[in-house]
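Hey, I was hoping to borrow your eyes for a little while. For a while now I've been wondering how a particular protein folds. The fold is given in discrete form, as structure tokens running alongside the sequence. Could you read through the record and tell me how the tokens relate to the sequence? Take your time with it, there's no hurry, and the full record follows here:
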Amino acid sequence: MYETVHCDAVTLQTADAIASSLHTNLVEWRVKPQTHGGPIVARIRPHCLSGGVRLIELSGGPFNGERSRAEIARDGDEYLGVLFQRSGSTLCKVGDSRTLVGPGEVCVWLSERPTEFEMPSQFQKLCLLIPLSRFESVLHNATAYEGLHLPTNNHLTTLLGSYLTTLSEEVAAGPDGGSSEAVDVTLELLGAAFRVYQSQFDHQPHYQLRSRILRYIEARLDDASLTPLKIAKGNGISLRYLYLVFSEQGMTVAGWVRQRRLARCRAELDDVQNTKTITEVAYRWGFNDSAHFSRLFKSSFGVSPSAYKALRAGRGI
């Protein structure tokens, strides 16, 4: 028997504090700010429900969460995670798979798989964590639903989003909100929705296409000639359809490419052993104007690339 625990929301302002709270209330995560040494803020409100099910409300500024084999080894159990993105976006990276979860969308992930979540801007989301053995009592072969992504234009997503919001804000926050009955209803609803959507998904290649496009872009970020037209041709679709795929996520193709290139540049500048100049790094990742690159970098990360590199070199990390 598990005790239902409700906690007040807490605001945390360091990566270590956020990681510690996620470890206590969810599972082990390694947290990193998207700008090294820059500010990082998260607001966490946890609910521990019956049967070992955990639910947290998480919001904050840009940061990344990673789970390597080291973090996974400290979990003590296997879980299925359900992410409901209330605002902002989350880029879920599992192996070569890339899933961009936009506002109002739902994504499923497994705790036993190395995973990285990138939150590139201010966000709000709900994270539900269910012991795999518990979920498989209502959803046979639950691990087969890893990576399931329910978009905003589906009635099942609307239903799940409304339910999870109510569960978090009204039901779980009440004195008996974490009861076994409430958890049973939640798992039955999730299981039924996943089964129905998966049967639809199997006949809709559109969502598989989106993941394929993201992989295509990621593998060609160093190509300065990577344009929306080239991406569309490389994936056998029209330019108009490519724009539609991204607009459904509230993003533009050019904006996504630019964001991913800047992240690659920042990763290179993180490496104090890297002897490339800032201009060389910029050109390496498709920016052919170093001054323009510097303005974009500062706009995205709050510090110029030269200052960022100097900070890294000064700390020797």
User: Anything to note?
Assistant: The chain is about 45% helix and 20% strand. The radius of gyration is 20 Å. Residues 16 and 31 are 7 Å apart (CA to CA). Residues 180-201 form the longest helix (22 residues).
